[in-house]
Structure formats: C-alpha cells, structure tokens
Design brief:
It contains eight helices and no strands. It is globular. It has about 260 residues and is an all-alpha fold. The protein binds zinc ion (ZN). Zinc ion binds near residues 49 and 73.
C-alpha cells in the first residue's frame, strides 16, 4: 500500500492527462475521417462553432466544470463523456499506484487499463477495435515485460502468440459453424496485445471470463428473441482486467485445487 500523498497526487494528475488524451483517441480513431485528423493535429475545436479550444478550456475535469459543460463561445453542450472518461482514468491510475507502488508494474497496469477502456468504449459504440490501441498496447506490454519480469519477456511473447492463435482459431470455427463472421480481426489482434500483459494462462482466463460476462448480458437478450451484434471487445477488455489483477491468485488456487485432488 502506498501512503505517500505526493505519489497519489502525481498518479492522479497523470491519469487525468491520459484520460484527456484517451478522449481524443476515442473521438478520432473511430471516425471515418481519421486519415485527415491524426491524434496530434489539428487541435481540438468545438463541433458546433468551430472555435479552437484554448488550453485553459482544455484542463481535464476542471475546465468542463468551470464551463458547466458548455462551449465558451457558442454555449453548445460538451458531452459528459469527456469529464467521465477523465475521472475514470484518474481513478484507475490512483488504484494502480495504491496496488503496485511506484514500479514498472504500476505503469503497465495503468496504461493497460487505459488502453482497455479505450477499446471497450470504441467497440461498444462503433463495433470496431482500432489497430492503434492494439499496437500501442503490444509495445507497452512487451516493453514492460523486459524490465519488470512481470510476466517475463518469454511469457509475454508466448501470451501474444497464444492470444492471436486462439482467437484466430475461434474465428475459423465460428465462421464454419455459424456461416458468418464470429470474430473480427480487431478481437484477434487485441488478444495478442492482452497476451503480452497477462501471459498464455492469462489469455485463457481472459477468454473464459469474457465468455461468462458476455453470456450474462447477451443470453437474456437472445432468449427474448433479440439477435444482436455482440461487441465482444467490451467483454474481452473486462476479462483482461480480471486476468491482470486476479490472475496470479486464481492460478495459485487452481494449482492447489488440482494438487489436493
Ligand atoms: Zn462552440
């Protein structure tokens, strides 16, 4: 446990900044016009009046509250999504520093959680998982495994390979059984990225947990005759978070269970 208030404040501020950046990612990576608008250029503008958003109106959480959720120039409402994402990512970074202290594992946990949130929101809204999240996550995951030994570089590479292969296989079987696209390319690449953070056991746990979460939500809908496209990335993101945080405990319990039997 971390009690150092400086670390907590530092983590919170970093989290707010990453949350603010994640808002830009969520907005720009999912749009059809993403070829025209990169993540860093041009600067953000009001979607209604086109006014460029000044730095003082772009401070995470604070600006939205001071402006009471409206554009300074035209009064157009600013989506509640912005402060909510910033606050969630801020809390995530605080939780990570409390859980792991000032370590590489903290940084890996916080960035992994941020990427997963971006994927979940984008998949839920647009049924797509932009490659940028997967590539950024894969590089961060492999990089972190080189320095901290969690899960270890070999484990991270193995996890990425197993994640990719497993979802690819599920996709093949799904296409053969249901005669339709069961697993998008985004899900496959996402699980390679997740594997780099949680290792191959984590990949299995992620897919298992995601299936449970997904069934809890979708089986009742299907029973009522509502066939829907499933944004499976949302559930994979939830499963991956479970595998990252609770994985080691779960494998340990499972091992002891097998040992006792
Ligand atoms: Zn405006």
């Amino acid at each position: 446990m971390v009690a150092d208030p400086l670390l907590l404040v530092g983590a919170a501020l970093l989290g707010l900044c990453f949350g603010s950046f994640l808002n830009v990612c969520i907005l720009r990576l999912a749009k059809e016009d993403k070829k025209q608008r990169s993540l860093f250029h041009p600067p953000s503008t009001c979607p209604s009046c086109g006014q460029r958003i000044e730095w003082r109106d772009n401070i995470p959480l604070v600006s939205w509250l001071l402006l009471r959720g409206r554009c300074r120039r035209c009064g157009h409402p600013i989506s509640l999504q912005y402060p909510v994402i910033e606050a969630v990512v801020g809390v995530l970074w605080i939780a990570a520093i409390v859980a792991y202290g000032p370590t590489v594992r903290f940084l890996a946990a916080a960035l992994f959680g941020t990427v997963l949130l971006g994927i979940a929101v984008t998949d839920a809204r647009h049924y797509l998982i932009p490659d940028e999240y997967n590539w950024a996550g894969l590089i961060i995951g492999l990089g972190a495994s080189l320095t901290s030994g969690v899960p270890g570089f070999t484990q991270a590479v193995l996890g990425a390979v197993v994640g990719f292969a497993l979802l690819y296989a599920v996709g093949l079987v799904g296409r053969w059984v249901f005669k339709e696209e069961a697993m998008g390319g985004g899900d496959i690449k996402m699980m390679a990225m997740v594997g780099a953070f949680v290792g191959w056991k984590g990949v299995l746990l992620t897919v298992f947990a995601a299936s449970v979460f997904g069934s809890l939500v979708y089986v009742p809908l299907l029973l009522r005759g509502r066939k829907r496209h499933v944004p499976f990335g949302v559930f994979l993101a939830m499963g991956a978070a479970v595998a990252f945080v609770f994985g080691p405990t779960i494998y340990d319990l499972y091992g002891r269970f097998l040992g006792a039997g």
